[in-house]
Amino acid sequence: MKISLRAGERVYINGAVLRVDRKVSVELVNDVMFLLEGQIMQASDATTALRQLYFIVQLMLMNPTDVRDASALYGQHHAALLAVCESHEMLVGLGAVDELVGATRYFEALKRIRALFPVEQAILAGATIDSPFQAA
Predict the structure, then answer these.
(1) Cα separation, 56 vs 67, whole angstroms
(2) What φ, ψ does residue 3 adopt, rounded to 5°?
(3) What is the DSSP string of 17-40?
(4) Would you give the end-to-end CA distance of the chain in angstroms?
(5) Of the candidates 25, 60, 98, 133, which lies 20 to 30 Å from 91 by C-alpha distance?
(6) Domain boundaries, the chain
């Protein structure tokens, strides 16, 4: 896989953070887990339950050698979401996310979670009482 980076951009590869000083293309020739800087969610942006789930999975991808704590947190958070969610689309999406995480396909899980962001926003926008998706 070949990725292109702009000057000053960072890429997170198997727990390592690389920052390039000029525009560069990098070819990843083996199976690695990586995130580009634009795909990284800051903790301050994890303002909803689904965004918090994204952040947890992101931690698992960024630090693949130590996923024990993040994995336990993921399990608790995912179960809590399933317990309160009534949207069929959200339940199907969360099931797919759980399968991907179980197979350590964290990048694909993040993509699936991002695809659910509009669903969560619609649920939150239509809520007339405190939504279970609201961040604690």
Answers:
(1) 10
(2) -120, 145
(3) EEE-SS-EEEE--S---EEEGGGP
(4) 39
(5) 60
(6) 2-38, 41-126
